Amino acid sequence: MRPWHEPLPPTLVRFAAQALKGRGRYFFLSAHMNEMSRRLLPPHTEAEEPRRTRHNRAGPFGVLDIGTTKVACLIGRTESDGSLRVLGFGWQRGRGVRVGGIVDIEDAERAIRAAVGQAEDMADTRLRAVTVNLSCGQPDSRLFNVQWPIGNAATGGRVVVEQDIRRVMVEARDRSVTDGREILHSLPLSFMVDKTDHVADPRGLFCSTLTARLHIVDAEASALRTLGACIARCDLDIAEVVSAPMAAGLATLVEDEREMGATMIDMGGGTTGVAVFAEGHLLHTAQLPIGGMHITSDLARELVTTVAHAERMKTLHGNVQSCADDEREFLTVPLVGEDEHQFAKVPRSMVVNVVRPRVEEIFQLVHDRLESAGLMRAMGARIVLTGGACQLAGVREMAAHMLNKPVRLGRPSTLRGLPDSASGPAFATAAGLLAWAAGAGRTLEDIDLLANTPAGPLRRFIRYLRERF
């Protein structure tokens, strides 16, 4: 056969033109052109580079949401198709916890043991370790930019490998260490290889300088040690401690919201969590020491009634928007210290006038926190409310007015096996913890970013010398 790079002779060209008029000789030219295309195109190989996929957690695993008003435990398993299935669920009224922190370790232990026991009985399994939320210890959220030399710029650098990413991560953790605080999360947001920005995974790229943008979340070490001691008293180990607002965001925000930008506000019983997502990553998280229990306490003091009845009135009649009938409709309120048959009659407007100022305070504190962090633009185009207190009537409209953003109510995404009683906004954090424990929401999940991390300052200094010299 004639080599493909030689031109066709004129006679063959004329023959090919004539062959186009008849179908019989057309296949000769087609076969010749196909032969040329096979020579010009690179050979096809069946073997492809394996994709970096998330490693789903095998076997049953448990999560624990410890809050001021409730303790919830979920036991789940990753199915063969990658979806999550809830095997066990248990919850108890919160005891020994105030504003997200443990204040009575014995009461907290009893509530945790009861919730975990319910979930274990339902799942017919026993847990050894749990992933726990953190809503105490004054968590702080900071961003770091870390540069790391990769190779000689004169020679074009060298290829970025996993060890380089680990070094950048360890360097960021070392710089962010503060006395009396421990790091919870070290989340890579993006990388820059030399002058090329917005690189999600720099492995395989050549550069002389690798720059990483990281989000560090830390908390008070004393609060973490108290949390660990309480879990240990329940004969459990802590597999991981996860920021509560981040977990709630994973459960309630859809992928497009996390990519385009959105702010999640988790209105819990003792605290209000805030998480800002953009470009698929968590940019900021905050925990405010105010929540639905503060509304209940305000009602109990103003109406001179029990906390239990104040909670009932908040649930049934709580509203942040007044109407004309509020002055004419009266509610029966049992008084503290009086006989059982002694009641007071109060207008419903009195309940509204107590609830509204506290809800306004919550959203004003959220606004101030986002403004002080410089996130008023980065907070995205939508607010998503979740948590038990977001179910008060009129809260959605007030949030839209005060934060000047469209607002929707967020519920945890559907999980197979999750009871209907646990599918509401109050259980968003628990559902998010289960998703995180299964591997969701992690960046560069196929790399152990904490491998070979030195424990003390002397070992860190030795590592610094070895890697640079």
> Total number of β-strand segments?
20
The name of the CATH topology of the domain at 255-410 is Nucleotidyltransferase, domain 5
The main β sheet shows up as:
5 strands, mixed
Instruction: Give the overall pLDDT as a whole number.
Output: 85
Strand order of the main beta sheet, please? 3-2-1-6-13
State the secondary-structure class.
Answer: alpha+beta
Regarding quaternary structure, how should these chains be classified? single chain
Radius of gyration from the CA trace?
30 Å
Distance between the termini: 60 Å
Q: In CATH's first tier, which class of the domain at 255-410 applies?
A: Alpha Beta
Instruction: List the uncertain runs.
Output: 1-5, 19-42, 44-55, 452-469
Question: Which architecture of the domain at 255-410 does the CATH hierarchy give at level 2?
Answer: 2-Layer Sandwich
Describe the structure.
By secondary structure, the protein is α+β, with helices and mostly antiparallel strands. Among the domains are: 140-218 and 446-468, Dna Ligase, domain 1 (2-Layer Sandwich), CATH 3.30.1490; 255-410, ATPase, nucleotide binding domain (Nucleotidyltransferase, domain 5), CATH 3.30.420. It is built from 13 helices and 20 strands. It has helices at 10-19, 23-40, 105-123, 162-176, 221-233, 244-252, 255-260, 292-303, 307-317, 348-372, 395-403, 428-438, 457-468, and strands at residues 61-66, 70-78, 84-93, 97-98, 101-102, 129-134, 140-149, 158-159, 181-193, 196-199, 206-207, 209-220, 237-243, 262-267, 272-278, 281-288, 330-334, 343-347, 383-386, 407-409. The chain has a five-stranded mixed sheet, with helices on both faces. A hairpin with an 8-residue loop joins strand 17 and strand 18. Helix 6 crosses helix 12 (428-438). The radius of gyration is 30 Å and the shape is globular. The protein starts with 9 loop residues before the first helix and ends with a helix.
